[in-house]
Each structure stands twice: as structure tokens, then as C-alpha cells.
Amino acid sequence: MKTTKQLAAFFLSVVLICMTVPQKAHADWFDPLTIHFLDVGQADCILVKAPNGQTMLIDGGDEHDAEEIITYLKREGVTQLDIVVATHPHHDHIGSLDDVIREFPVSVLYMPNLPYDTKYYHDLFRVINEKQIPVDRAKAGVNFKMGFSVKVEMLAPKGSYYKHINDYSAVIKIKHGKKTFLLMADAGAEEEKEILSRGGYKADVIKLGHHGANTGTTMEFLKKVKAKTAVISVGRNNPYQFPSKEVLYRLDNRNMTVYRTDQLGAIIATSNGKKIMFRTNVLH
């Protein structure tokens, strides 16, 4: 028969366990989320590292960016990619994604329903088939969590047909505690209107669509999103003269803080759920 002391010790241990479990879950809320906007020139590549250790890679740069992306991911301690998103099939978003996903185990890959007859698209699917990576459709309404504190939702695309390929872009909202990031891929004005019609788009940080081109980032969209900070993934001395003067004027008019990869190199945002801090990694 257990003694009174043994029983008391047993019940005390149960109480301590019950107190510890929710405290750990609550603490995770304030563990850091980091979002890395890689400097891949006139292209897009974003690494998301959740507090629970899960990773998400959004796009894979252009044709010759594989080595740089893979080196960056390994330097960040990435050994596998839990989620990969190919926002749309243009070369400056999937150009090196085949080589990147060949290097790391991938749990699931999201992409819009848009077959595209290019070498880059076929190369990507060749590796997807070789590695038997599950592919899900990127579309409005897709949502999932990365651990306790990070909620991911796709706000677009909602429709099945768009005039411009950029408007098929998977637009992703990431919420961590009280802070929210809105990643626009190459979304233009048409997709912005679609997002505004559905709600749930307010954010603290916005990664501008289409490298700051005047095809989107309308004043109406900026006013309703209410972001205080903009990130622009854009190449140095690019022939398109992105970001456009019109878009930069709108950002200035809104008194937004602007971070550009062509000026600052990789841009790393760190959120603790209450505040977002930025640092840069100039490699040129």
C-alpha cells in the first residue's frame, strides 16, 4: 500500500505536469517567427521558419539561383522543407525550384491550377514526379498552421481564369500572434480587387506584388491593407526600372518604411507575435 507521502508526491507531480503543458504552449506564442526575403535579383524566393521548427519555401528564384538558395537554406539550418509554394509558373519564381526541391525532402507542394508549357515548368514536375512529392492546389481558402502560433492562409487566387498569368499568383497571409505578413507574389490590380472583396487582408508588412511594378500595389489596396512596412524583391539595375516611380510615390505618400533587396541584400523579418524587427544581410 502506498504511504501518505508517496500519494502526496504523486498528486503534486500531476499538478506540476498540468501547469507546465499550457505554459509551454503559451510560451511558443512568443517564440520567434523569421521570414527571409532572399536576394535573388529580379526574382522571388522567401523562406519562412516557424517557432516549432517547420519551414516553408515560397518560390525558387530564377534559372541560375539554385546554388545561392541551397547555400542560404543550409546556412540557416534547413534540412527539410515542410511546405513549398510555387506561387505561379513564371521563370523568375520557379526557375531554380526543381534543383532546390531535389536537394531537400519536401512534405507538400502547393501551386495554382495553371499548366504552363515551358522548360522550367516541365523540369519542376520532373523532380516532383521523381520524388513523388504530393501536390495540392494553391487557391483562396487554403489554410494551415505551422505549430501553435503561426496561421497561414491563401487569399488568392479565387477564380479559375484571369487575363494575366500574374493574377493566378498564390497570395499568402501569415499571422503570428498580433502581427501579420501579406505576401503578394506577382499579383496585379485585378487580384487585389478580388482580395479586397473578400476581407481578411489587413497586415503589418506587405511584400509588394511583381517586384514593385505599376501593374498593382494600387493606392486603394495600400489604404485598406494598412501595412506600415513594405518589402520589395527586385534586381539591381533591372531593365524594367522596377520598382516603378508611381508605386514608390504611393509608399511614400503612406509614410511606409521600405526594404529593398537590390539595396540591402537579404531582408530578415523576425516576429515575436507583438513586434517585428528587421535586419539585412548585404552580400555585395
UniProtKB/TrEMBL annotation:
InterPro entries: ComA-like_MBL, Competence_DNA_uptake, Metallo-B-lactamas, RibonucZ/Hydroxyglut_hydro
Signal peptide: 1-27
Gene source species: Fictibacillus phosphorivorans
Keywords in alphabetical order: Signal
UniProt protein name: Metallo-beta-lactamase domain-containing protein
Signal keyword on record: yes
Keyword Signal part of the UniProt annotation: yes
Residue ranges constituting the Metallo-beta-lactamase domain according to the UniProt record: 42-236
